[in-house]
């Protein structure tokens, strides 16, 4: 018997699959949605120019962060849903798994490719968002300085300070990170569903269903617990529902950020950890199903 | 004793049929041993269990009973695939990659890097005649070109065993002949080839041994020349034989107990005729 030099885990192999997945998605021209995002931002800032600057920035942040959340969620679901069924249908999966590539590495590479795509998307959207905020801030600043040219310096400084506080601030960053983690969670869950789904249309359909349940379940749980004392069985059941249908409302921290309230560090850390745990658990489930799958 | 390249022992695969009590037996108690350096052909009609057998050997499907080994390694283990290259039936590789990118991707999966990967990629593109098309995306490749790039990816890590599932399915005679020549080149280099095919003439030309599967059972197995030989007949092919010589042979035969079964002009094959007629047109892909 020939001695094997095979390594049970190779980051180089995972990196090759990650890069290939990213190339596939980029060449599928999925980044076109960024154009829609840019148009949305520009259109919004033109339309909102009639409001006061506090209102304008508030609406701009609300629209931008909301669009980021929806676009990354959609991108995570739609791109991940096609990866596995497409490889099986084209028999490309056979050629990869017939090489010394463990199934874990194949799945990890695919998911990492999607997560990288989501990271690039959110970085580009954030850059566009910050650029629009900065440009509007500069335009409004020159207007304020012009309008208040005859007034006392203290009053002008106060107006400028107020404008700067309404525009870009560091509190936006945790909100954007949480939006990214939510999309990672959705990508991992989509990958899990696609390991046993029969087609990518079915996967997308199931994920849209989970997406809505995920946003509504917190309200339903609160309502249900109000009417019932909630013993350990009820709590166990609710915990299981929360695992199958992730509580996506927990990742909705942007409302506070939009009105200028900073997210407490503890809440940010807890939500970020929850996103990482959900993503890891769904990836683990995906691997378990895929490991035993007959191809 | 030399270790077989592929050893299939007591292999049975049963698939459950959804929503029914009955089960489908795809392969039943199969025993095959493919020697190192041999070209082995697995034949059989559609649904006879050829592809299932190949998938089990490659670890893509798990056996219900029995075991398969590749050079002594259990083929369920990932490390057994270090020595294997596989070309599935009618593959569609990543359309968005070019020929060169495809080979680089598969090379990386096999642990090739840097200058070695580059050299191997160029070598394979030359071997399968795709050097000119290296920068074209696979979406624009013809069926024959896809099959050739598929064969190249199967060979990327210089495997000792190459498994080919219907390697010439859907390919025109010229492309089919090229793939046949590549398989023969592998054989001369000592690579073991296990293939399944419907093209019996081609299998006859390239395989050392064949196994015939029917309903998941190995019904015949052996060396091609032995299986095809008709024991009580002898074939003599004459060139420039005059009618007088032929008459003398016939008279000689008439005096003995030998029966002349058939006397006819040998014919070329349709494949050879096709290739000769289209020779200048080939290789323009």
Describe, in short, the structure shown.
The complex is a heterodimer of chains A (295) and B (285). Chain A is mostly helical. Chain A has helices at 11-27, 32-47, 53-89, 92-97, 103-147, 153-166, 172-196, 200-227, 232-244, 254-258, 265-291.
Q: Helix and strand layout, with pairings?
A:
The complex is a heterodimer of chains A (295) and B (285).
Chain A: H1 11-27, H2 32-47, H3 53-89, H4 92-97, H5 103-147, H6 153-166, H7 172-196, H8 200-227, H9 232-244, H10 254-258, H11 265-291
Helix pairs in contact in A: 1-5, 2-3, 2-5, 3-5, 3-7, 3-8, 5-6, 5-7, 5-11, 7-8, 7-11
Chain B: E1 6-16, E2 23-34, E3 39-43, H1 50-57, E4 65-70, E5 73-74, E6 84-87, H2 99-109, H3 114-127, H4 143-154, E7 161-165, H5 173-188, E8 192-196, H6 200-206, E9 209-214, E10 217-223, H7 224-228, H8 243-255, H9 270-278
Parallel strand pairs in B: 3-8, 3-9, 6-7, 7-8
Antiparallel strand pairs in B: 1-2, 1-4, 4-5, 9-10
Helix pairs in contact in B: 2-3, 2-4
Explain what the structure shows.
The complex is a heterodimer of chains A (295) and B (285). Helices cover 79% and strands 0% of the residues of chain A. By secondary structure, chain A is mostly helical. The mean pLDDT of chain A is 84. In chain A, helix 1 (11-27) packs across helix 5 (103-147), helix 3 packs antiparallel against helix 5 (103-147) and helix 5 (103-147) packs antiparallel against helix 7. Chain A has helices at 11-27, 32-47, 53-89, 92-97, 103-147, 153-166, 172-196, 200-227, 232-244, 254-258, 265-291. With 285 residues, chain B is an alpha/beta fold. Chain B has nine helices and ten strands. Chain B has helices at residues 50-57, 99-109, 114-127, 143-154, 173-188, 200-206, 224-228, 243-255, 270-278, and strands at residues 6-16, 23-34, 39-43, 65-70, 73-74, 84-87, 161-165, 192-196, 209-214, 217-223.
